[in-house]
């Protein structure tokens, strides 16, 4: 994940965006691991980006970027569930892939979303 730029298609090679991605170095990998571990610890309840921000004391920009990368790598998956943010807007809940049981195609985004999670006590160790 070190040089992986999930936004490369969006920014089209913009120099500042590329440099910002490259400057993260090992911190990007460490943050990604922390986010994946945090979501694993949340079990089938999962977390929104805002909940990751508060749980790990990351900036919203960093938490959002790491979650986008982890989704692209299929380590975490968005669910059909949403929860309100502090501003009252609804945010998508993501779970670690170990807690995803069934999926459906989201025609709005063109992505798969988790439609059913496995309860915390049903997940095998490992």
Total domains: 1
Structural class: alpha+beta
- Cα(first) to Cα(last) distance is 22 Å
Give the fraction of residues assigned to helices.
40-55%
Number of strands: 4
Biggest sheet: strand arrangement: 1-2
The tally of helices reads: 5
Model description:
- The protein is an alpha+beta fold and 126 residues long.
- The chain has a single domain, classed as Winged helix-like DNA-binding domain superfamily/Winged helix DNA-binding domain (Arc Repressor Mutant, subunit A), CATH 1.10.10.10.
- 41% of the residues lie in helices and 24% in strands.
- The protein contains 5 helices and 4 strands, in the order H-H-H-H-H-E-E-E-E.
- It has helices at 8-11, 15-23, 25-42, 49-56, 60-72, and strands at residues 76-84, 90-96, 100-106, 111-117.
- The strands form 2 sheets. Strands 1-2 form a two-stranded antiparallel ribbon. It has a two-stranded antiparallel sheet with strand order 3-4.
- Helix 3 crosses helix 5.
- The longest helix is centred in the first third of the chain and has 18 residues, at 25-42.
In short:
The protein has 126 residues and is an alpha+beta fold.
Secondary-structure blueprint:
Blueprint lengths: L7 H4 L3 H9 L1 H18 L6 H8 L3 H13 L3 E9 L5 E7 L3 E7 L4 E7 L9
Antiparallel strand pairs: 1-2, 3-4
Helix pairs in contact: 3-5, 4-5
